[in-house]
C-alpha cells in the first residue's frame, strides 16, 4: 500500500515538469495565487492549515477495499483513475473546525486531483483557501509548506500534517498526525476537535505539540487567552485516560469555581483528619506515660511500655478507614 502511495505522488509530481539545477538547494516555487486576506466570515480567527493526502484521505491508483470516491485526471495526455478513501470523521472535522478557524487545505499534490477531492470533502464551501504543490517551497529537493508565506501571524497558525518534512520550517506550529490508509476505526480527527476548540482561545498557539501533550495527559494547566489573561484548564481524570489522546470537550469539564470549592473541602478534610490522628497519638502517649509511672511505683519487672503501646494501637485499629471516624473522599491534588 505504501508503494502505491509513493508511485501516486511521484506520478502526480512528474506532470508538473518541475526541474531544479544542482546549484539550487533552496527555492520557492513561484506562486500563481495571491494569498488573500481573511474573509469576513473568518476575520480575526486563527488559521488552521490541513494537509490532504494521508491526513484527510488516502489515495491509490489501484482499487481498495473501500473506495469513497473515484477521481479521473489527465496527466501527460493520459487519463488515470485515482481511488480515494476518506478518513473517518473528515467531513465533520471540516464543518466543526470552520466554526473556530480560518480553514486552508494545503497539499503537495496537483490541483487537478486535489480540487475534486476537496469538493467532495467540503460541499458547503467552508474551506477558505486551497493551496497546492506550486505553493510549496523546495528545500534540498523536499517540498515544504512555509507558513510564513500565508501572511498570517505565526502565533495564530496551526498546521496538521502527517509528514514532518512539511513543517520543518515551523515545527512549533504543527500537529504531527498519524498516517491514514484504510483503517475505518481511525479516530484521530474526531479526537483533535475538542483540543482545537480550546487552543483557538489561546493568545499564542505555539508550541502546538506541547499544548496537545498537556491536554492529553495533564488534568490541569495554565494558558494565556486572547485577551492576555491567564486561565486555568482543569479536567477530572476519566476512564478514557488510557486512550492515545484524552481529548475531552472543555464544556464537559467542571467549572473552575466548582473545582476550587472541591479542593478547599479536600484541604479542610485533610487538616481535620491529621488533627484527629494527632489527638489520638497524644492520648496514647499520655496513657503510656501513666502506665510507665505506675510500673515504676510498683516496680514491676520486664514491663515494656512500647509493647503496651502497640497493643493499644492494634485495638484502636488506627490504620483502618474508620479509625478517626467516617472516611472523607476528596479529589487528589497534583
TrEMBL record:
FCP1 homology domain span: 41-199
One family name in Pfam for this protein: NIF
Recorded GO MF terms: phosphatase activity
Species: Paramecium octaurelia
InterPro entries documented for this protein: Dullard_phosphatase (IPR011948), FCP1_dom (IPR004274), TIM50 (IPR050365)
Bias (Basic and acidic residues) ranges: 278-298
Tree of life domain: Eukaryota
SMART domains tied to this protein: CPDc (SM00577)
The protein's name: FCP1 homology domain-containing protein
Region (Disordered): 278-309
PANTHER family: DULLARD PROTEIN PHOSPHATASE (PTHR12210)
